[in-house]
Design a protein that fits this description.
heterodimer; A: about 260 residues; alpha/beta; eight-stranded parallel barrel; 9 helices; globular; B: about 300 residues; eight-stranded parallel β-sheet; two-stranded antiparallel ribbon; 10 strands; about 15% strand
Chain lengths: ~260, ~300
């Protein structure tokens, strides 16, 4: 399971403050902390409040994080220009977060992915919206691969996001997403990589953490390759580790929970 | 990562463990002898073993080669292994510890062997209650020379870890063909301060015809896990055909249908050892001089010279 740490995001008040005050130490400490907790990659997002000089701020954040870690970075923004600002200064391997099958966005971001040898997260949705049925979601997954291939982007550079909706609003869609993940294992060999933004499932819900980690184990069984998560949630990280053993993805050993801090 | 991808692009090579003055084991990125892009193959080491006392009940095939005389004097025997038989390394098996009160004598012998040979050393217990005590004392004597000491098992992890940290030597983890135990011991050693590049795994050996297949599959699983990124299993492997083949019918019994015992016996050891090499062993420990010759020739051929 490839884990992308979600904490460097301006929607968190503390991060928004740090961005405002150009507090690079805060950002860097947060980057290091997330990797120490087991994140394999770090998402970098400005948050909704940044309107002015967003490209410069993105570049600054990416540069600062690259100074303290060599893990891949997920450049997270709705606008291609701001994504490129981050990519252009990123010394580490990069993932673009994210495209969809909406024509303009897809074309622009696949070009960026090729230009910067970055990986690309593609949401399984288009101008008509998010499909609701397993067959339609899987078909969209296939379409993503085919259209990326046409553009010259290899399958192993793509992460398909079947789109995770909140249990509080679209409870029936959770199982649809899980079944879609299973279906996507069959559409190519090796299977394409898949990803979800885990916290989405518990939006507006109570007891968010247990919802997140319970879903993640189900998704791992269904074949999920990657997830954007909170690595500072120790219970979540322990759950991932335990699930990896149960799925025989890692060799079991007795002290498999050693190395997890009780509280971060 | 599926096996095919692993073979071509591997980001998790086996840890490199220093051994002796100027040798190292491990470091490979692939299963044995697969050198893609003409990368140099890691050559396994062919070690010979001696005891810290005379070889009692020496099999005929070994008698006719090494000679009872040489094998009754550990230092002479060790010197022959290095200078005449071409061993890359030497394992000293502390069999005298199976008797009471032999600890000091054993250590004295180890010291004398160390002074007599230049090849890297492995000091190995006999399964006696005195093993850990003598092994750690030997480590104190010889430490800092990149020697390997073992076995480390679940009962002596703490003491052996302490010894490794204080005396700067490598450790060989013994596991009864159990990959989970191997990983757990590696973790325990690491948590006790031993670097991962100071550990080797001994999955326990079985002769061909007597349980080799399972040992092969365990070694393969360890390698696969290591190549997939499991750092506690990304460790060099050692096997000891010499320990397991010389008590068998095939290496001891005269039988006209089986061919000349003096040849048959070392071929049995050589084929077992070669099979272990193909399963990933970075060091094989053998007893017969002809085995060493055969193995070194084969290793050269398989490594492309």
């Amino acid at each position: 399971m490839f884990l992308i740490g979600e904490r460097i995001n301006g929607m968190f008040t503390s991060v928004a403050e740090a961005i405002k005050n150009k507090d690079e130490k805060f950002i860097q400490d947060l980057a290091v902390k997330q990797t120490e907790c087991g994140a394999h990659c770090l998402d970098i997002a400005l948050g909704p409040a940044i309107k002015k000089d967003a490209d410069k701020i993105m570049a600054w954040m990416v540069e600062k994080v690259c100074e303290v870690t060599s893990v891949p970075l997920s450049i997270d923004n709705p606008h291609a220009g701001i994504i490129e600002a981050g990519l252009s200064v990123c010394k580490n391997p990069a993932i673009i977060n994210s495209a969809s099958l909406e024509e303009e966005r897809f074309n622009g971001l696949t070009e960026l992915a090729l230009k910067y040898s970055a990986s690309l997260i593609v949401l399984a949705m288009n101008e008509e919206g998010v499909p609701q049925a397993v067959e339609d979601k899987s078909a969209m997954g296939l379409e993503i691969i085919a259209r990326c291939a046409e553009k010259g982007l290899d399958t192993d550079k793509i992460y398909i996001d079947p789109i995770l909706l909140p249990v509080s609003a679209a409870q029936d869609q959770i199982k649809v997403t899980l079944d879609t993940l299973k279906e996507l294992q069959l559409i190519s060999d090796p299977a394409p990589k898949t990803i979800v933004g885990l916290s989405n499932i518990s939006q507006q819900a109570k007891n968010r953490k247990i919802i997140n980690r319970t879903f993640l184990t189900m998704a791992m069984y269904a074949g999920l390759s990657a997830a954007i998560v909170d690595p500072l949630d120790t219970d979540l990280m322990k759950t991932v580790k335990t699930a990896e053993l149960l799925l025989n993805n890692e060799v079991y050993y007795q002290d498999f929970l050693s190395g997890f801090k009780e509280k971060v | 990562m599926n096996n095919l991808e692993l073979l071509k692009e591997n980001n998790f090579p086996v840890a490199e463990v220093k051994f002796g003055k100027d040798k190292a084991i491990g470091g490979e990125k692939y299963f044995p002898f697969l050198n893609y892009d003409n990368e140099k193959c890691t050559k396994p080491l062919v070690a010979m073993e001696v005891f810290d006392r005379r070889y009692d009940n020496m099999p005929q095939a070994l008698k006719s080669s090494i000679g009872e005389d040489t094998a009754s004097d550990p230092v002479k025997w060790a010197e022959a292994c290095e200078k005449e038989y071409g061993a890359d390394a030497m394992l000293i098996r502390l069999l005298s510890l199976l008797e009471e009160g032999e600890e000091d004598k054993s250590l004295e012998t180890v010291k004398r062997i160390k002074e007599a040979v230049n090849i890297p050393l492995i000091i190995w217990g006999a399964g006696s209650r005195k093993d850990t005590e003598v092994l750690t004392r030997a480590a104190q004597l010889l430490g800092g020379n990149n020697i390997l000491i073992g076995p480390v098992n679940q009962n002596n992890v703490k003491l052996m870890a302490e010894s490794s940290v204080n005396n700067d030597h490598g450790l060989i983890i013994e596991t009864p063909l159990d990959i989970n135990i191997a990983k757990q011991i590696a973790l325990s050693l690491n948590n006790s301060g031993v670097d991962l590049n100071k550990m080797v795994i001994y999955p326990t050996s079985g002769s061909i015809g007597y349980g080799f297949e399972y040992a092969y599959s365990i070694s393969e699983r360890i390698r696969l896990a290591g190549f997939s990124g499991d750092k506690y299993l990304s460790l060099p492997l050692i096997s000891m055909p010499g320990e397991v083949v010389w008590g068998l019918r095939e290496t001891n019994e005269e039988n006209p249908d089986w061919g000349d015992i003096n040849k048959r016996a070392y071929i049995w050891e050589a084929v077992t050892a070669l099979s272990y090499i193909l399963s990933g062993s970075d060091i094989v420990v053998v007893r017969h001089p002809e085995t060493v010759k055969v193995l070194k020739k084969k290793i050269d051929e398989l490594s492309g010279g």
